[in-house]
Amino acid sequence: MASKEVIIALDEGTTNAKAVALDASGKVLVSRSRALSINTPREGWVEQPAELLVSASLAVIAEVIETVGADNVAALAISNQRETAVGWYRNNGRPLGAAITWQCSRTAGFCQSLRQQGKEAQIKAVTGLPIAPLFSASKMRWLLESVPNGVGLAESGEICLGTVDSWLLWNLTGGDAFCCDYSNAARTQLFNLHTANWDDEMLALFGIPRQALPEIRPSSGLFGYTHKCAGIPDGIPVMAMIGDSHAALFAHGLGSAGCVKATYGTGSSVMAPVNSAQSGVDALATTVAWHDGERLVYGLEGNIPHTGDAVAWMVESTGLDLLPPSELAQQLSQLPASVDSTLGVYFVPALTGLGAPWWDENARGMIRGLSRGVKRAHLVRAALESITYQIADVVMTMRQHDDFALTALMVDGGPTRNDWLMQYQADLLGCPVMRSDVTELSAMGAALLARKAQRGLPTAELRQFLPEHVSFQPDMARHGRLQKRWHEWQSAVELTRLQTAPL
């Protein structure tokens, strides 16, 4: 193995932290992962121990370094779950409390007050993001309010507020580096898409002192060096940081026009590259896809909180969680194929509200259309179909954008290993679905950005490292038939929203 050619990419997700070592050709040498716990202390609250995000991440990095040899490691890269907010004390790195995850809706009341004040158009114009508790700003406000004199301490520089990338970087560098990348900054609702910096009006609106926020840097470039981490040698450069969904889009095709990306995980991100920060599509987010060290690349995105999570809920509710993992995966492919339809059942998994394109945090889940003949197979199929309908809802909304093009849906994530699901998605959309079977795709995207910075490469030269895809071609006759089911699904969504509307 050539010295100093291995990139170790940390992919810190919602349910696990994974470290992946990639060699000079982009091949995965080894990966290690650790599961992460998720806590729901109250209805609509979703949080994780901030210390656990760090300890699990550092542990898997150390394990991979031990396997490949520290002398071979050229750089580290980070991809991370987005919008999750962490606060900590600058002098000792102790968290203010738990990390408030992207799924959490505890700030729904504050978000509703912003709507009532007529702030939505202003926020959307500046940040590209609709008002929703998904984004980090309202969570950061909540964190400051959760500790005595939180705002005062933040104003004096004694409290740090960040997304997960900045929290991990702080710990990897022993507190030497307090930075985030453009893609994560753009998800906070404090970032001005047009000036590419923290926005004074948004900081004032959410009550966040600028002194508490990290420095924003390109996704590809030097962020700092490892320092004082057990099992991790000092001096390894951190050469890339990027949100996980953005990293996956980068690894699929480097942002090629027409290649729309859908990541299937606990939730889903559907993202399309677009040419500018301007967007007239109110129901979707305009965001920074990445800054590759040369230029900002923008993205049009819809975020869905419950896709794989919807299937997990149905698995637990139908007793399938008692099966070994390999048998469960087999059942999730066989059960939906064993029935011709759901017998009219539609599952709207608004377990903590609806994301794009509905943005209704007050909605709650519903199973509609139950009849005596409905069995477990129909319910499981309904849960899987709900993933495809939610993604189709976002794609349909994306078509309103002048820059949008769809030649193929590029997909990744655990649920995409279900061939039945992928074919249903292709047939529903009427376009090819191109699956990457690289389970480390987000890590690979971050590693590519680190490699670009390490070698000083133009982005186009990274194409040689991109993974192959498996193609699912649409059955256009079935595509026509599925449009009726899709419309029935949308009716179920509207009924869900009506039932939770205030009286």
Automatic annotation (TrEMBL):
<feature type="domain" description="Carbohydrate kinase FGGY C-terminal">
    <location>
        <begin position="261"/>
        <end position="450"/>
    </location>
</feature>
<keyword id="KW-0547">Nucleotide-binding</keyword>
<keyword id="KW-0067">ATP-binding</keyword>
<dbReference type="Pfam" id="PF00370">
    <property type="entry name" value="FGGY_N"/>
</dbReference>
<protein>
    <recommendedName>
        <fullName>ATP:glycerol 3-phosphotransferase</fullName>
    </recommendedName>
</protein>
<comment type="similarity">
    <text>Belongs to the FGGY kinase family.</text>
</comment>
<keyword id="KW-0418">Kinase</keyword>
<dbReference type="InterPro" id="IPR000577">
    <property type="entry name" value="Carb_kinase_FGGY"/>
</dbReference>
<dbReference type="InterPro" id="IPR018483">
    <property type="entry name" value="Carb_kinase_FGGY_CS"/>
</dbReference>
<feature type="domain" description="Carbohydrate kinase FGGY N-terminal">
    <location>
        <begin position="6"/>
        <end position="250"/>
    </location>
</feature>
<dbReference type="GO" id="GO:0019563">
    <property type="term" value="P:glycerol catabolic process"/>
</dbReference>
<dbReference type="InterPro" id="IPR043129">
    <property type="entry name" value="ATPase_NBD"/>
</dbReference>
<keyword id="KW-0808">Transferase</keyword>
<dbReference type="InterPro" id="IPR018485">
    <property type="entry name" value="FGGY_C"/>
</dbReference>
<dbReference type="Pfam" id="PF02782">
    <property type="entry name" value="FGGY_C"/>
</dbReference>
<dbReference type="GO" id="GO:0005524">
    <property type="term" value="F:ATP binding"/>
</dbReference>
<dbReference type="InterPro" id="IPR018484">
    <property type="entry name" value="FGGY_N"/>
</dbReference>
<dbReference type="GO" id="GO:0005829">
    <property type="term" value="C:cytosol"/>
</dbReference>
<dbReference type="GO" id="GO:0004370">
    <property type="term" value="F:glycerol kinase activity"/>
</dbReference>
